[in-house]
UniProtKB/TrEMBL annotation:
Pfam families xrefs: DUF885 (PF05960)
Domain of life: Eukaryota
Protein's recorded name: DUF885 domain-containing protein
Native species: Pomacea canaliculata (Golden apple snail)
InterPro entries to which the protein is assigned, alphabetical: DUF885 (IPR010281)
């Protein structure tokens, strides 16, 4: 495949950019902080109160996340990276868990029980990973995330609707040098503890900083477009625009100085002290840390050996599918030779970004959407746009819209260089990112009435994992990969060439299971990982090196795609076997989607409950009536 596929933090599926005002109408939520007793009379009200308290604290603790979530009261603040905050955070989470355990779960409705169980997992996941805090949280900078990798993040999340938004953004810029210095202090702690990253996770950062630091402040990624086109098109008076721009230039000069301090620290102190072993197994307790990373991302108890073996099995299976497709195409050569021939054939490429964008739109509206009712019912009506990615990143990313539909879901396609984008892969990418993939996944959640901690996921601190709140990687990315598979059932891969594009995407995700565990648990060298990917996928050497360095940086994350997809397929087969003629694929997909992200064991419980209710609807109705009587 020609398109880069490494996913940067918060851009594969950005759940946190939509607001959920409907939850304020949820029964008991308006009680908010009024109920704080340990043993409340009414469990539903106690649960609502606790969830409201927790969410208010989360918004205060993570002000940038709050802005992205639509909460505006912290728009002038930045998250603290002072080391003392981590201990404070653990104490708060333990406090919330203790309060949750004081809520009588048996007094809750089935819907509230699901809230309870997901909330319990939310808090427990944080605490389970917290024992590794001083391994992961002391390394807040790597080549994939942070101000060095995404300097425009603070602009993207700000609304810029009036002068107050510009003032708030400037206040954040004024605080940014302090945040950068706090990150340097954390990395110094990592050196002291002997818990540094491998150098491949940070070796690119100095050049990233060089690309950010501009002599002319107006060319800085912190300046445009906020103080150029956005300000020009705003209602801010002209006299105040000049003042705002002058303040911005001063802020950027101070930010540049802080970034250069970080560059010097990395080159003179951190990189020379970087971990010499490739995977995290080189750290004390590193293998235990990796097992926790696997549990965090897959939400299972799979061992590294089980993940590794699954990867080998899947690579072999998918390779067989590819060889069968080549046989049908009468291609006399290897899989590698086939893709080399594709790269050399101009008929598999478009001539312009506009042609590629039109192809994506054609796939969505003329091929995929008309067939969705075969597999889904009650599809929410939310707008979707296809736009060119404004930077050279992964092949495509999806950003969710808002419940009021004023902001559409947007599929950003990387079409900057059409010579790198083979048409073989376009359908699989479209299915994954839009319909029935992440866009459909998001709009079902947008339409649901669920607590904010479930609907809004902070997907932008990968370095902190597993010592942070869950993002349900296996559920989110498992569905995306499963959506690529659904393209086969819908007849959307029109020929074996398109199927080969799908298989190239799938085998790469299978290879990740082998390489990630190999690097972090079985002592693989980086070169061995690179060679395995070159031998078993169709990626270019440049992309493979970036991918391997991604796995070194985010242990366990890349394993979740296949684990999640396989689990969804297993649950589907389980339901089909149990229900026989009663099985409706549309109902199954509703069960998977309408409840949002969750660990896979809870997803399986939901499917089991649906199976039981379908087989014995009279019992389900009786249980519902009894529960209503209990609550009254």
């Amino acid at each position: 495949m020609e398109v880069e596929k490494y996913e940067l933090p918060g851009i594969r599926l950005v759940w946190f950019n939509f607001h959920v005002p409907t939850y304020s109408d949820h029964e008991g939520f308006k009680a908010g902080h009024a109920c704080c007793t340990r043993t409340p009379i009414h469990a539903p009200e106690a649960l609502r109160s606790l969830e409201a308290d927790f969410w208010a604290w989360r918004m205060e603790d993570a002000p940038e996340f709050a802005t992205a979530a639509g909460e505006t009261c912290h728009n002038d603040l930045l998250e603290s990276f002072d080391i003392s905050v981590y201990q404070t955070r653990k104490v708060k989470v333990l406090e919330y868990l203790n309060r949750l355990q004081g809520v009588n779960r048996e007094q809750l409705s089935p819907t509230d029980k699901l809230d309870y169980d997901i909330f319990d997992n939310h808090l427990q996941t944080f605490l389970d990973g917290a024992r590794f805090d001083m391994y992961v949280s002391v390394n807040p900078v790597n080549f994939l995330e942070g101000v060095n990798a995404n300097p425009g993040h603070l602009q993207v999340i700000m609304p810029f609707t009036d002068i107050c938004d510009y003032e708030d953004y400037l206040l954040r810029l004024e605080l940014l040098p302090q945040q950068i210095d706090e990150k340097i202090e954390l990395m110094q702690t990592a050196i002291t503890l002997g818990h540094t990253l491998n150098k491949m996770s940070v070796i690119r950062i100095p050049s990233q900083i060089d690309d950010i630091v501009m002599d002319d402040a107006e060319e800085s990624p912190f300046y445009a477009p906020a103080f150029t086109t956005k300000l020009d098109n705003s209602d801010v008076p002209s006299s105040k625009r000049t003042v705002l721009r002058a303040r911005a230039e001063n802020c950027i000069n101070l930010i540049n100085q802080a970034l250069l301090r970080m560059k010097d620290f990395l080159e003179l102190a951190y990189i020379p002290a970087a971990r010499t072993t490739w995977g995290v197994a080189g750290w004390p307790d590193g293998k235990q840390l990796y097992q926790q990373c696997l549990k965090y991302h897959t939400s299972t108890d799979m061992t590294p050996q089980e993940v590794y073996d699954l990867g080998l099995k899947e690579v072999s299976r998918i390779r067989g599918n590819m060889e069968a497709a080549l046989k049908r195409l009468n291609f006399q050569g290897s899989i590698k030779q086939f893709y080399d021939s594709i790269r050399a054939d101009p008929k598999f490429y478009k001539n312009s970004p506009e042609e590629l964008l039109s192809t994506f739109e054609d796939y969505i509206y003329n091929h995929i959407f008309p067939k969705l009712p075969k597999l889904f019912k009650n599809i929410p009506d939310f707008p979707l746009k296809v736009e060119q990615m404004p930077y050279d990143g992964p092949g495509g990313v999806y950003m969710a819209g808002t419940p009021d539909k004023k902001v559409p879901g947007i599929f950003y396609a990387n079409v900057t260089d059409p010579s790198r984008v083979s048409t073989l892969n376009l359908m699989a990418l479209t299915l994954h990112e839009t319909l029935p993939g992440h866009h459909l996944q998001a709009i079902y959640s947008l339409s649901a009435n669920m607590p904010p901690f479930r609907a809004l996921i902070e997907d932008n601190h990968y370095y902190r994992m597993p010592a942070t709140f869950p993002i349900h990687t296996a559920y989110i990315e498992g569905w995306g990969l499963y959506s690529e598979y659904l393209g086969e059932e819908l007849g959307l891969y029109q020929d074996d060439y398109m199927l080969m594009g799908r298989y190239s995407e799938e085998i790469f995700r299978a290879c990740r299971l082998v390489v990630d565990t190999g690097l972090h648990y079985f002592g693989w060298e980086r070169e061995r990982a690179i060679q395995y990917l070159l031998d078993n996928s169709v990626e270019t050497p440049e992309n493979v090196k970036i991918e391997v360095d991604r796995y070194l940086t985010w242990p366990g994350q890349a394993t979740a795609y296949k684990v999640g997809e396989i689990k969804i397929k297993q649950l589907r087969q389980k339901a089909s076997n149990a229900l026989g003629d009663l099985f409706d694929i549309r109902d199954f997909h509703s069960v998977i989607l309408v409840n949002g992200g969750m660990p896979l064991n809870l997803l399986e419980q939901l499917v089991d409950d649906w199976i039981a209710a379908t087989l014995h609807p009279e019992n389900a109705l009786q249980d519902k009536d009894e529960k209503i009587c209990t609550e009254e």
